Amino acid sequence: MKHIGVVLTDILVSQELVRYHVIEFVVNKDNEYDHVLASVADAAFRFEANGMLDLAFVKNQKRRAERPLSFGDIIEWDDIDMKNNRIIYKFRRMPALFGARVSEQKFQLLVSGVVSPVDRFHFWSEYFPHVRLDMKSTEQVLPNVTVSAWLNLCLDEDGRFCVEFDSFEKVEHEGSIIAAAPWNRNNSKYSTLALPLYDDVLESQIVLPDSFSELPHWQQELFDYEGVCTGKRLIFCRRLPSYEIVVALFKDDKESIPLGIGVTCEFTAVWNEYEKRFIVTTYKTTGLPSRLGSNGLLRTSVKAVEDYPGLFKSDQFGLIDDPRGVLALLHLSAYKRSSVVVTLEDKPAYQLDMRFRIVDVQPDKAPKLQKWMEDSEITVEDADGVAIDTSTIYSKDHGNIFFHVPEELRSSLSPGKLVKFSAKYQHDIKQFTVAKIAVLPGDGITCVEKRLSREQDESQIVFRINAVRVRDLRRFLENPIFGLIDTGTAISLPRNKKTNFTVWITRSLPEAGTIRPTRTPFFVVSMGEQEPDDYVLSPDIITPTIPEPSKEVDAMIPKETKERDDIEIQAAMESLGLIGDEEPDFIHAAGCNDTKCATDCPTMNTVMKLHEKVDNFWELLSAKNPTFFTECVNKLFS
């Protein structure tokens, strides 16, 4: 059996006849590497001539045998080459697996690895699978991206081998290590072959993004591109506006401006086929923050898009949606053709042409718009619309506005009916109320009720319509009744020349305290004539899964006890803000601090209880409250 190890150091070697310590990599039952200490004997560096007469050959072999080992060298040996006391008497030198250096009297190896998206403090690499990060380092790096890091290797006073994280070095090109990480091994997303970046033969096999033919500037690696930081890690590049470009590693550079919103930069990036986005490998900031609004977000000037009410266009950032309805009434005002300065948030997604979203209106027009709203009687006359339920009308000509139908006008109204209506804006409730309505003859639009999410208590109305492709907007369809419709990330339009589609759509409803998730008021649920199935929208929504006991055990538990446990678990989930609409209620004990909670801490005790009772508790907590998730993990592992 062959063995492989890395030379540690000779500084701590005190045994007679032993020259080096070696860490052997041993595969454990979990198919990961453990580390076992071994030693290289002084005798392993001797060459026995055994009567050879070729003096030049003997001299050369002796010189090679006596060549010393260095920290980080990789050696291989067989069972027969090691004695019972784990001393190696014969070995073979192997190609290097790691970079190596001695820095500030620390022996360090440079390894390629990846940070876990579930446990941000876990750095995994093939040969060192369990390395813990400090809090600062977790904030520097993006999970599920290959990065190289320096690890400190040493022996403690008791002769035990220790591995400690030192620092990140750089972002590596995509490799198989991402798919090999334990949290990705059974994920079909990472089962595709990771192709070498510079292999011309294999490179031709890579499936290019769907938009490659439309955006000729796409290439697998970007060199010295220019962009502006639009979020904590996001970079917007005008040459590739539809692609998400993410900084995977922040490096401390005291000589340059820190990367932040509004800071321009030059960068090099590589396409990540797994995540469908560009990962920045190196960047250099080139200017001070600029074009920032009073809220610290990007500021830009926009104009309304006449063909698509509710959408706006910026010369710099392209089409922009208004999910908060900040400018919902602009097209009804005297300023409908004027420019308005707004602030934006960048929310990119794969193949999304409309990545920026309006947050608020800046002072240049805000006072004027507010005064117009307060002083004017705002009305809509003889508009075409469709009933989306028994009390709400939608009109594509008015974008983000939904019109409320009072009870006395609902008698002939049903979902899907086409209508002609007039409405007036109610300043006190900030809502349009229908004043006059006429249902048009005909059957209207076919619709059904579906419960589209496991988190929904009520069903939602889904409409069947015919829609056509939109030129230059790959992820959108258009319908004469509902206007522009977002296809979302779950629906992929065929890449053939077909332009007409039968689709089922529904209204995009925001969760409590959030904005609508899609770029348009309605989005595609499914394609084809067949009605969509329940839950088709939310296969990936994380919901609490409470393990069920076996039938035998369940029969032994009193009914009152089971009901009480269920109530307690629900109350605990609500207290942490994991279910329901209430804000989380974190109550700490007097002995709690920023790094550790006391044993009598109510919040941490609730966390530990749910950890035991709810199977996917940590995934749920990470999705609902990533800040509190990080705090809990940091306290538990500190």
UniProtKB/TrEMBL annotation:
Residues 460-529 form the P-granule-associated protein DEPS-1 sixth OB-fold domain. Residues 220-285 form the P-granule-associated protein DEPS-1 third OB-fold domain. Residues 98-174 form the P-granule-associated protein DEPS-1 second OB-fold domain. InterPro entries: OB_DEPS-1_1st, OB_DEPS-1_2nd, OB_DEPS-1_3rd, OB_DEPS-1_6th. This is Uncharacterized protein. Residues 5-93 form the P-granule-associated protein DEPS-1 first OB-fold domain. It comes from the Eukaryota.
